[in-house]
Design a protein that fits this description.
The protein has 218 residues and is α/β, with parallel strands linked by helices. The chain is 49% helix and 12% strand. The protein has a six-stranded parallel β-sheet, sandwiched between helices. Strand 4, helix 9 and strand 5 (180-184) form a beta-alpha-beta unit. The longest helix has 19 residues, at 65-83. It is globular, with a radius of gyration of 17 Å. The termini are close together.
Length: 218
């Protein structure tokens, strides 16, 4: 039986990965630089802070990391404030978990202010007691620290805590650290077979809560 759930936000709860597919190149073009690469792939495991450092080192962007992060956040904040939608079935799924006394929090690589405003607008912020970010814990999701901190906050044991992730690298990190991991389909992850092989249970969407609960109750 589970008592705690740690949810990624982008691509897991929020249908928001499209904004990240182009933001790396869009930011550079906005300040007069020509992208040399597919930055969405380069930044796949990066926090915003790491991306800002990359711009400085690899492109010679002369701004501070704080300014770069602020500029990027301004570009995408409208999307999170006004446009981003929940993935299908999310609200009912969270309600069912809450009704079963499962405590929940967020573990995300995205700035907490963006996730907070999106969750509030979409009506699901109340399900989560705290938003943990890679920046706040000081590590990307290539390290398990964010999941450990989230579990500590939830006051649950690892054996009774599940992690929901759509990205293969994050799912692998949580799984390798001993968490039970629920994979969530998102079209932005092009290694779906590997994701399914990594996770303990795979959700194509959040509509079938019964199948998930049957698995968890084994």
């Amino acid at each position: 039986m589970i008592r705690g759930a740690i949810f990624d936000a982008d691509g897991t709860l929020l249908d928001s990965m499209s904004i990240w597919d182009t933001i790396g190149e869009d930011y550079l073009r906005s300040i007069g630089y020509i992208p040399k690469e597919d930055l969405s792939e380069t930044f796949k495991t990066f926090s915003l802070y790491q991306a800002a450092c990359y711009y400085q080192k690899e492109y010679g962007v002369p701004f501070s990391t704080a300014q770069i992060i602020d500029d990027i956040n301004k570009m995408i904040s409208f999307f999170y404030r006004e446009q981003v939608q929940l993935k299908q079935g999310v609200e009912a799924f969270l309600s069912d978990l809450q009704n079963k006394d499962v405590v929940m929090c967020i573990a995300t690589a995205t700035d907490s202010s963006l996730i907070d405003v999106a969750l509030k607008r979409c009506g699901i912020r109340n399900y989560f007691s705290k938003i943990f970010t890679c920046k706040s814990v000081g590590y990307s999701k290539c390290e398990p620290i964010i999941y450990r901190e989230a579990m500590k906050h939830l006051e649950t044991l690892k054996t009774e805590t599940v992690v929901f992730e759509d990205a293969l690298h994050a799912a692998q990190t949580a799984k390798n650290d001993g968490f039970s991991v629920i994979g969530v389909y998102d079209c932005s992850e092009n290694q779906q077979t590997e994701l399914q092989e990594t996770v303990d249970f795979y959700l194509e969407d959040f509509l079938n809560f019964d199948s998930f609960w049957k698995y968890i109750s084994k």
